Amino acid sequence: MAMKKCRECGGKVSSSAKTCPHCGVSKPYTSPSGCLIFILAAAFATYMTFFKDDDKKPENSYEKAEDTQEVRSEAQAVIQSRGFTCTKVNSTHAAAFGGSITVFCDDVYEYKIKDNGGKYQVTAE
Ligand SMILES: [Zn+2]
User: Fold this and answer.
1) Would you put residue 89 in left (φ > 0), alpha (ψ -120 to 50) or beta?
2) Is pLDDT above 70 for 101?
3) Distance in Å, CA 5 to ligand 1 centroid
4) Statement: residue 84 has pLDDT above 80
């Protein structure tokens, strides 16, 4: 059984090992293709640029908020903390002018969350 060097941590691993016993990386003895690394690096750079721009926006603002899983779970938490029922968020819709967001829950409920200077006000429609 040949011993090879792990591409991640440099530890000794068997050439038949599926994962590195030291760092847990899969296929530790094969080097990933340079092309893949380039694509990942480019994707990461794009990702970082995107979030850098995002940081310039004021915090706790739903302005231009997208209907992402993060927005949904945050909206759900706010709704539930005000004693409203929201077992599952169907969709969220940010108001065009910002400051409020409409949340649809459990196929029947519709809530509006208003951002009053950092304090969320929840109203059932
Ligand atoms: Zn390793």
Assistant:
1) beta
2) yes
3) 8
4) yes
Residues 40 and 75 in one domain: no
State the residue range of the domain holding 7.
3-54
Give Cα 40 to chain centroid, integer Å: 17
Measure 12 CA to ligand 1 centroid, in angstroms. Answer: 8
Provide the domain count of the chain.
Answer: 2
Cα(29) to ligand 1 centroid in Å equals 9
Closest to 84 (Cα-Cα) out of 59, 57, 106: 106
The whole-number pLDDT of residue 49 equals 73
pLDDT (tens digit per residue) in 40-83: 777 787 777 766 655 555 555 544 567 899 999 999 999 999 99
Does 38 fall in a domain?
yes
Query: Tokens 């910002």 identify what position?
Result: 98
Rounded Cα distance between 71 and 88, Å, is 13
How far apart CA 53 and CA 19 sit, in angstroms, is 38
74 and 41 fall within a common domain: no
Q: Is the pLDDT of residue 23 over 50?
A: yes
